[in-house]
Amino acid sequence: MEIITSVREMQALARKWRQGGKSIGFVPTMGYLHEGHLTLMRKARTENEITVASIFVNPLQFGVGEDYEEYPRDLERDAPLAEAAGVDYLFVPTVREMYPRGYQTFVEVTEVTRGLCGASRPGHFRGVTTVVMKLFNIVKPDRAYFGWKDAQQVQVIRRMVEDLNLDVEIIPVPIVREADGLALSSRNVYLEPEERKAALVLSRSLKRAEELVAQGERQPEVIKEQVKQMIEAEPLAQIDYVELVALPDLTPLEQLQGQALLALAVRIGKTRLIDNTVLEVEG
Ligand code: AMP
């Protein structure tokens, strides 16, 4: 595996692969790799001739007072993990390389970024779409892999790809969880042992919602209320949002029908965690 830090060098390689008819799979990440990231990389590996992953903690997608400075970074730990997962090229640019002096261009997706994490993290998705657009132009992937852990992000990126006619296929990958249900996240390292236990309330409350739907519950308000009550019963947990919205547009729902996304953001101590499940009702 080769580590590339220069935009020009990465672009030149990608141009050469494209011209040679080689398919490129791409996995953008912020690093501190875990099994979720590695699952995306292994999938990219099986479906493409060249696999590129990036590690870039994108300052543009962090709000004031968020954890940009504290976000875990460890390339010496990450590089061998990426290599073992089948990554051929690891793109690791600096902030200055991605946003040189004078930078002033941004990509904004509107409606689908308004709710959920878009509402509680103003500017977040503008940062995400801008960096992903740049990374697509640098890496020129045929396929790009995104985890369903960030379900709204998947919908936002899909919207951008469709609206801007980008020539890349977006491949969503299911959430990878610990054996006890906690969704893997680089931010889980922030959790103290007591908080780690409390964090299970996210996946447990999603399971409870799935059971309610299996028992015939169809009212979004009832499902959301049950989930909220479960989370509120956990003393270390504080709800940021609990939302049940239609897929793929993330619009409000009167009645559960077709595919709906139940998405949570919950603060456990100082750590903000997200999780979600798709609730599906036939007919
Ligand atoms: P991040 O480094 O947090 O920006 O994540 C990079 C990519 O990995 C994103 O597409 C995430 O959705 C995905 N990802 C993160 N955690 C998980 C997980 N537990 N399961 C599946 N994909 C994940």
Listed once per kind, the bound small molecules are: adenosine monophosphate
List segments where confidence is low: pLDDT < 50 over at least 5 consecutive residues: none
Q: Tally the beta strands.
A: 9
Order of helices and strands: EHEHEHEHHHEHEHHHEEE
Percentage of residues assigned to helices: 25-40%
N-to-C CA distance: 48 Å
Instruction: Output the structural class.
Output: alpha/beta
Q: What fraction of residues sit in β-strands?
A: 15-25%
Give the overall shape. globular
Total of helices: 10
- The average pLDDT is 98
Radius of gyration using CA atoms only: 19 Å
Q: Main sheet: which strands, in order across?
A: 1-4-3-2-5-6
Largest sheet: 6 strands, parallel
Characterize the structure shown.
This protein is an alpha/beta fold. The protein contains ten helices and nine strands. The strands form two sheets. A six-stranded parallel beta sheet has the order 1-4-3-2-5-6, sandwiched between helices. A three-stranded antiparallel beta sheet has the order 7-8-9. α7 (151-163) links the parallel β5 and β6. It is globular. The model has no long low-confidence stretch (mean pLDDT 98). The protein binds adenosine monophosphate. Adenosine monophosphate (AMP) binds at residues 29-30, 36-37, 40, 146-147, 149-150, 173, 175-176, 183-186.
